[in-house]
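Sequence in, structure out.
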Amino acid sequence: MSVDMVELSVTTPQPVKPAGIPQKNRVFLDFFWDLAKPDQEVRLKALENLIQYLKTNDQADELEYSLKRLVDGLAHTREAARPGFSLALGQVLGAFKQISLQSILNQIKQKHNLQTAKKKFLRNAAFGNLFGVLALHQSGRIAEEPQVVLGCVQLLQSLSQHRQHLKDLPTQTMTDILNEIPEEVFEEVLLSALQTDLASAFSTPEQLQLLLVALRRFPRTLKPKKLKKLLGFSTIINADNIPKLTEVLKMAAKSSKKECLLPPVVLDLLKLSLKEDSFQLFWNDAIVNGMLLKEPLGPTHYLCYRLLGSALPLLSEAQLKEVLSGEVMAYYAEHMASSQKISQKGSRFQLAPEMDAYVSAFLQSCQDADKQLTVMVAFSLLSTNGFLLMPPTWKVVQHLQPAALQQYVDWLKKMFLQPQLDKLLDLSARRHRDNEEQKENSIFSLRRWIVSRLCSIIDNNQVKKEEDLIMGVARFIFFHAFFDVKKGSRDIEETLGKLSIPLDDRIRGPLVSSFFGLLLSLHLMPLDQDPSDGAASYRRRVVGITADGTMWIYHMAQYAQLLLSQPKYAQCYNPFTPEQRQAWDGMLESVANLKKKEKKGPIPGSGAFQQLFLLVGFYLFKAPEELVDIMKDLQSCVDVALEKNAKKKKKKKKPGQEEEPEWVDVMVEILLSLLSQHSRHIRLVCKTVFSSICPDVTKTALTAILDVLDPEKDEEDGALVVTVDNKDKTKNPDEEDDDEMEGNKSDESDDDSDEAMEEDDDDDDEDDDDDEGDMAEGKVDQQFRMELMKVLHGQNALATAEGGSSDEEMDDDAMIALDKGLATLFSAHKKNAEAKKDEKTKIQKEKTLVRDFKIKVLDLVEVFVARQAGSPLVLCLLEPLLTIINRGMSSGSDQQEQDFLRRVADIFSASLYVVKVLRGAPPAEAKEEPTAGGAAAQDLSFMGNVDVDRVANVFKGALSNFMGKRKSPLSAQMFTDLFTRFPVLCVKLLDTIVQHITSGARVYQQGQACMLMLRAMQSREVQQLLSGAPWTELCATVSGQLAASLQQVGVTENKEVKEKVLKALELSQFLVRSVHRQKLSVDLQPLKEVLQSLTSNVAFKKTGKLEDTYWAVMKLLGVQKPKVEKTKPDKEPVVPQGPTKKEKGFLPETKKRKKRDNPILEPAAAAAAAEAGQATSSSRPAADKGQVKKKPKKTKQKRPADGAASQPNPAKKSKTTPSESKTAKKKKKPKQKKEGGGKM
């Protein structure tokens, strides 16, 4: 062996490769393989490792080999590999300064010579040269060797001829080289070489880009005189060159269509126009007239819009005003309008996100407030047909400087008071200047948009704004929502602004809605803190107050009081009545009293009560008739709550005097009435108030809350709303009775549930309507048929139709009368149908409002369970909540109802905690006893003050609901949590679980019953509580139920049935193991018999959890899994194979000719017959083309060719034949078995 190795080492060296490298270091060679892989991360890692390896080893031959491999890889056939080798070569050249760049350039030219390359490798050679130049440029050393720079440029110029392969990459590479070299090298070496390229600057965008880079990088070399000598003109942008520049810009726009980017040459031209003081000429003649107005909508327009966005940081304030008020902005508005319309129907390219990015970048980088204001005002004026296009909520506002933001807000206010439609950037408005109706609609749209923009500025917490600005916006919106100016006053700033066009009634609604949305924003506005403050982390959570600690809403109340107290200057749009004014003054007095008492000491819930007072007070401006009585009751309740002292408690009730309700009961009633308002702000404040009064809530108050949620109470109060199913299909989300109350900050969770409910309604209502139509069809058709019969009998038309006599035809008068009667009948029928439809729509809306109200009331229940978890009153929630779940679950429940029931179920599950609280800690005596047996059982059975039977009945009802209903919001996890926390309650529920193993509503529930029983029986606490005879009895009962449940399983492939069987088998496994381990007297024979017959009904796979679990149970019962015997090897030798039998290609079995069985011959005769058959097959090669197995045939055809070998060896040939027929036998296995049986 050693001799062979020596010979091998002597004979295998290759003269082409460097000696020893491939044999010595395989890791080194793997670097080059990784450089060619498509994964960029792998390539970069290989590059890093290669340079580190070369630096560490410092071997000249390895470095030389690396350079050769990298140069070769520049023309790799795999496109992803070329950049990897180019980058690696550049990095190696940068790391090893001793390598001459000229030698590498010569090596690149020699290896990838375009003159000697074959035609099919010409493209790869061109890319090899290009990536070689890129590698030299990336080395960072190209400026050190001017001759290399010249050589690279000349090579790139020669590559420009192969534009079909490289496109404009050579010119772009020359541009990159110009950006790196110093001016001396350009003047001495490159200027003469690039004269042709610079002179043809207007031929392509890349050539022009090369000239612009040279002008920017080498201004001393390319002076105007030199430029005029070179090009014939001293400036690039002039009136003569505008047509040429326009054509180049069009070419650039079309070439960058797919990239959706602004070509660099366009921005460089803009910069050059600013430098040459020819911006106006370039913008008006080249961009507007040449690109925008003369070209259709497409890439040229998009280039103009992108240039506009990119030019914002480069222009002066005067230039910004000129550009942002010109044709480009007007056409951009048209683009926005058309893209918004079409995007609603289908996909279309929109430039708005790109423009937002341009504006955002400009505002972030610009510190000039005047420029920022100019840009914001210009984009705010974009409109079409008088409707503003920019969204009211624009995130770029957060980048405004405080001064610019204040000026912008002042501009918005001024535009609201004095709309100037002529300043809108709107091409369509020029065609509708004299349309009065269009003008009124435009003014309304403008004012509504301004109000929304002002509110969005306040609502955005990222915007840096002063408190004065916030208060100014809030006062402005409140004043114009509820007041009118009578006379100007310096004390009231809003009275100084005069309306050029009076406010119409349409704008009042959006103003009121925006104001209440603004109140919610102020309520949630965080307090800004100094980061250096030590308590800043805590104070950041404080919301709804100003820096001095006063609530925002209180500041607004003071402003409202100022307006009401000076009717000389401001008049309320809907003046208060004396009673309403008294309620307002009483509210302010109550708030003042609360503030005074707060100074003496902290009062729980004082801030919440103030919020509620002030919020209800502001709603007096919106709906005074509804809230006057609520305000009075609220004042009396708060007075009693704050004055509940010993004097009040000692007062005795006089004989015959009715007992007054508790103040907390009245407060809960007030909160429930306020929750009926469609306002998220009221909802949040009510939750806060209720949270503060939770310790004082009585059973009466809690019952009032539960009565609202009780479905039975709904039937008593309004049977129409509750009894009619929700089957309306025409719900319009905009048609809400109190939509204005919500404002801009509508309840997101409510809106989401409403939208989901509407979508599900649209899906479910079709089926429901069909069912309802089928049910009512008989009645409706019968009534309509009777009326129709009357009309026909009245005109004797029925007799004519039924008699069938063609002689007795109706005259014209009778036909006209019949037509009138039928028209009247069908018209009345149609009106009745529409009336029923409208009634159903009304009922649907009412039912939706009721559900929405119940969802809000659930907030109070959640707060009570969370804040008063240890209160015995929580137990009062279990039965009502379970009743709600039972009554609410139905097949017709929509998504909103399902969400409501899930929340109820979550509260029901959370109420489990109160059981633990009421149970308390076990007695100390039980803990101290050392005996573990009795003490442990006593500890587990301890439930303290809990009425175990009552609580168990509640959960038993919930469990029956879960097992007996097809749809239930409850889950098995809720009951497993209960079993873990309270084993005593688990024991009480075992009978119900065992029962539902066979009587569950569905197969799913039966499987869940098995799972719950398994979890219960696995609990050590449950085993201890049931130790002895109860445990044995439970095991026997479970065994019988499992046998009955598995016996119900028929022949099926249903997935749910298999899941149930799997859970039953898991329970059976634990049961059998427990019976055997504990030696319990439980008869398992019935279960064993059912399990043995189970395989005939349920198909088990060869492997899988179901089969494994089944045989694990059977093994415990003494039944072993049968071994599968492989019969195939045993039967194969039995089948005799005829030597001449061959496959018939792809013919079907029915078309194949069946040959008779050959007689069994002696070995010599068989060999002779085989030779004869092979000779016949070799003489007919065309007949074998259709056969599948080609290799065996070739072998059989070649063997007879050697006559010397075939004649004396017949036994060897017969030994080969069965192996060939064995392959054919595998293909037709069933048929061969049958034939074999026949032959035997």
